[in-house]
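quick one before i forget lol
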Amino acid sequence: ATSLFSVNAFASNHENGEMHKDHRKEMREQHKNLSKEEVLDKLGKHKEKLKERLAKADCEKGFILDGFPRTVEQAVALDKILSELGLKLNCALNVAVPASELIRRAVGRRICKKCGATYHVEFKPSKKDGICDVCGGDLYQRADDSEATMKNRLSVYEEQTKPLISYYEKEELYKEVDGSQSMDKVFQDIVAILRS
């Protein structure tokens, strides 16, 4: 089994991806300042969903948890849940990207209001500025993609998520990929780690 902690617990198809997307939104909005005990309680309530999902045939050779856990407390809770299920992680993979690059990537992202197609002003611009190539809809920048929001998210990462690196290093599970490489190279490096 493989856990990709830096990047969706139930995302193997669109339906499961939507379920996890809803779960992540709920966790973000309702569980921002929970104590360790409250985190364990909330995660315990999702144990049956996780157990059901991990019992599916497409998880027989492993699974990826994307974007979870985000704190050491969540990692401890996840370890407890997996232990109860007779499972364990064999890898915690971090796609490391310098903060300045993450900000540049987010600030340049544009999304079509009509069809949801994504663009980037530098890496994947639309043919006509501000207009979707697919449906002709208007492109916009999400509020979450502003520089101020990104700097805040990076601050939260430093405080809450970065400690997972040492947690998983102690468990001898931590692996890192240079996320500033080309997408193809990042993908190749991830596949090589997951296959090792």
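fyi The two ends are 12 Å apart (CA to CA).
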